[in-house]
Every structure is written in C-alpha cells, then in structure tokens.
Amino acid sequence: MVDRIEGQFYTMEGIAAAVLMVLTAYLVLSGTTMYTPGDTHIIDMQLEQVGSDALKVMDTKNIDSTNETFSYLESYVRNMTTTGKNDFKTEFKRIIDISSAYPDNIHFKADIYYRLTNDTIKKFDFTESDRKFSGNENAVRVSRWVFVDKAATNVPSADGFRDNNQTVLLEVLLWRG
Amino acid sequence: MERLNESGQWIVLMGILVSIGLFFLAFVINQSALVGQTTAEGVLEFPKNEIQDTRSEIFRWVSVWKQLQASDNTTCLSDMATLARYRRNAEIWFIVKPEVEVSGNMYYPITIHYNNGVTEYDETLTYFVSGI
Predict the structure, then answer these.
(1) What is the average pLDDT across A132-146?
(2) Residue B29 and residue A44: Cβ atoms within 8 Å?
(3) By CB distance 3.0 to 4.6 Å, which of A112, B40, B62, B126 could disulfide with A45?
C-alpha cells in the first residue's frame, strides 16, 4: 500500500474552496428564483400608481380658470349616462399612455358606486376599454371619490341615484394584456 | 508528522479571500430581490392615495360649503363612510365645525379619522376657503 501523506493541507483547502463555490452558486440561483414573486409586486405597485395619478390629474381643476366649477373627472361622472362614458375612456387612456413612448398595453374597466337612500350600495357600469375584462387578469384596483352636485341630470335616476349633492366612488380596474 | 511544503502560501491565501469575497457579493445579489419585493409590498399596503383622496374630497365639500345646506354635512359623511366600508375596507369619519376667524381670515376646523385595520390616520386641521 502506498503510504504518502504529503499535501493534506492542499486537499483540505480544495474541499473548503469547493464548499464555498457550491454555496455561492446556491445563493445566486436562489436569488434568481426569488425574483419572480417580487416582480409581480413591483409591477402591481407601478400600475396602481399610474392609475391613481391619472385619476388625480383628471380630478384637478384648472386654477387659471376662475369660472371652472367642475374638474374634468367630475364633468364626466355627472354625465355618466351620456357623453361621460366615452370622454372618460378617451381621456383616461390618453393619460396612462403619456408615460410611455408608444401606446401602453394597459386596459381598464371603470364602475361607479353610489349610495341609495336606504344606505345600500349600487353599482353603475361606467365604461370599459376595448379589450373586455374576463376576470382572469391580474388586475389592480384604484378608486377616487367624485363629487356630484344636485344639478346633474345625466345620472341613472331610475336606479335610485339621489338628486342631492353627494359623493360617489369611481373604481377602476387596471391590468396589462 | 508529514513533511509540509510551505511554498506558495500567499497564493493559496488570496484564493480563499477571493472566494469569500464572491460569497458576500452573491449574498448581496440574493438580498436585492428581497428588498425590491418588500418595498413594493410596503407601498401597496400603505393607503397613501386613499388618504390623500379622502382629504381632498372633504376639502371639496368644504370649499362649496357656502352653496350647500347644513344637511349636506351628514350626507357627505354617510356617502363616504358607507362606500368606504363596502368598497375600500376602511372606516372614515370626519366632522367640519363652524368657521372661526384666525388673523382676519375664516377657517373651518376639520377632524378626519381613517382606519383600514392596518393603517390608522387621524388629523385635525383648519381649512381656509377663499372668498367667504
């Protein structure tokens, strides 16, 4: 039997280096796989911020105009059964596309929730982008209070929409697809 | 005792240092994904936009106060409290007190309460409405 015991430190170092490299490779690989769930949160956050900002922009009154009573968003909502649908759809699409160089693939569905006199909630299907919501998309929800004055006439009065000053909730589902 | 060959130990030592350095760099990459996730989760969970929106809507009501009847106060509160409970999973309460004069201007004292079970927000402020 050959009995040479030289170079044992080199062997131990080789083993130590191998363990370190395997651990390093494991850390790198596990880091990459963890990025996927993190990714959806980051995208959701970005989408939610884009939607909220778009609604906020539309609900800001032009301070240079002294006779402007309603913001764009309030005008659309107080005409929700007539011209408001398409005006909102066009303007909302325009604003969420501003941040990208070419039209983004964001789609949306907007509903209006209002309170009836008996304290129950009713939904009004406001508008929808060209691609319909199927229910399977990973959508985020943004919403905004909208003030509707009592002079508004293009509202679903037959469905119990009150005729006094009130606040309704405009809710928008946003998804990419 | 075996005979040790002690030449080239610096090279071996540097090899170990470099591998330890790589180990820590990989650890940093590993953590960066986690940081992106928790940051996004924190932003999604905190209802910043809802609180700002609620404040601005209350101010909207107060700014048209002079055209409204007193009963509109409770109407607005009922609308927002009911809708927030059903659609935003949050409790909203606020009260607008009669205007007070501060340094020649009229201000409305407003108290706002917001709670969605995770985030609680309370604010008391005086809101200035021009042209009263």
Answers:
(1) 88
(2) no
(3) B40
